[in-house]
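[Automated response] Your request has been received and processed.

Submitted sequence:
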Amino acid sequence: MKESRINKYIALCGICSRREADDLIVAGRVMINGDKAELGSKVNEGDIVTLDGKEVKPEEKKVVAYYKPVGVTVTEADVHANITLSEAFHYPTRLTYAGRLDEESEGLLIMTNDGDLIHCMMGGSNNHEKEYIVEVDRDIDPMIFDRMRKGIYLFDLKVETKPCKVEPVDSKTFKITLTQGLNRQIRRMCFECGLDVIKLKRIRVCNIFLGDLKPSEYREIEGEELKELYDTVFKSPEN
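Generated structure:
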């Protein structure tokens, strides 16, 4: 193993992202050879790293496409959630999420123990595509699609959305492809256009499609499909 920063090492163990690893380190929960780790500490071959007293090691990389059902909160633990992702998703190896979906939304969630993949997919400037099918509460004026394509100013976040692809499906349904991940972005965009979202489903992330998966089902991503995912994610501007 090459020398690596402690936050990257923890991410490679599939525990969390590098940013979340920093929080664990600051909280004093991470040790290297019995000494408390600090931000920027290095890990070398033969070092023993523990989290809350339990040794952690990098695992074989796994990437899974999971159909998150409506009602599942994408978090490891939340006392206010009806059901958390860790309660709903079960896999032989501990995986965590690379990207989020709000509780009311459903569809494709990428699950992995590859910390680098999590870091890149959840970065703020990654620009990888995420495609959704959206159903709203009323007929959609075609001018709204033009507004969305050009970018909409979200007053509560004080930011304008990036240009995106929008394709009508029927009078109340459309497909939208985003390259950014603002909190509840599609719902906020629809709100600014006078629309309420009835159903929101993510059907694609980069080259990975939801396909025939049913709610709560998953499939492993392997072979050329996995290679293409890595090629797409790691060539993004942030990386």
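Summary generated for your ticket: The first strand starts at residue 4 and ends at 5. The mean pLDDT is 91.
If you did not submit this request, please reply to this message.
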